[in-house]
Amino acid sequence: MKRTRLNRALAALMLPLGLAATSMALAEGKGLAYVSDQDGSVSVIDLTTLENKGSLDIGAKGPRGIGITANGKRLVTANKDDGNISIVDLATGMAAKHVKIGKNPEFVRVFGDKAYVTYEPSSKSGPPPKPGSEAAKEDDDDEKIPGRIAIVDLKKGKVIREIIGKPETEGVEFSKDGKQMIVTNESDNSITVHDMKSGKLVKNVPVGVYGERPRGIKVSPDGQSYVTTLEMSDKLLVLDSKLEPVKVIDTGKAPYGVSYDRDGKRLFIATSKQKAMQVYDTATLEKIKDIPTGERCWHFSFTPDDQQILLACGKSNEVVVIDTNKLEVTKRIADKEMPWGIVTYPKSMGSLDRP
Asked: Is residue 228 included in any domain, yes or no?
């Protein structure tokens, strides 16, 4: 009992100071959400009150990709401005280590005690040019330079292997059995499948015939299908368990973040230029509803109890809260530092993570 009271007291003291609560204190509430703020650090949202409780000191600039370990002890951010990742000790709320990655680290997935980080050696600042434009033609040579996936041992705090990808590596997902890593490659208009142990390329799936710029990638809870968003073509591509395309459907403008719900019955897509969260029935792929959101909403996470979705909207400087039963916005949490990505602990379904 004394230890429990001490943990409560520590959590109460830490949060007003802008630090995260210890993972041991989370069991008393609904958990925490961690939001990577591209113009700041990482903000912390208490999922019991849905209030911002402060921020973490990641010791770096431009965090985008974000992930958390299964035990809730370490948070990882990919920092664009510094070309590194921060490994944050959530018991103290401060960066314990920084690991150099390379130019433009963007997407992070944590699997076991390793982080998988995509980065782009050829990257230029600003958004990708529209396919077929003059800017795109000038960018062709750079886009032929392969991207990379850095594999970081989180305990040792160092890169232990790199996988050569296709041009502009982007989203990362893992097969349900954990044996394969699936990567979307924006400018190459492809999905690549790699063996998790060796990093060897085992399959290349061209998707250009269906649409341009694959970004988000998600496996269904039963492992029988995958979906990827084709941002520049306003499409969603559905693939079977062997990563063979089976169907393409229309979405709103500029789809990016995508996730199934926990039981796999509904599919949620953040369409940034449509300024909406779109909800689909996975059995029929018919649209259930468009939920108006905010500006440049890319990534989202369900809460651990599956009752809400928290959506990071960078250009409207807010985290939008959506009731998953009513499919309505119930709250807007101000965040003036351009929120990019979001994960929770306990871990939950979302565009950047899964339990």
From this structure: no
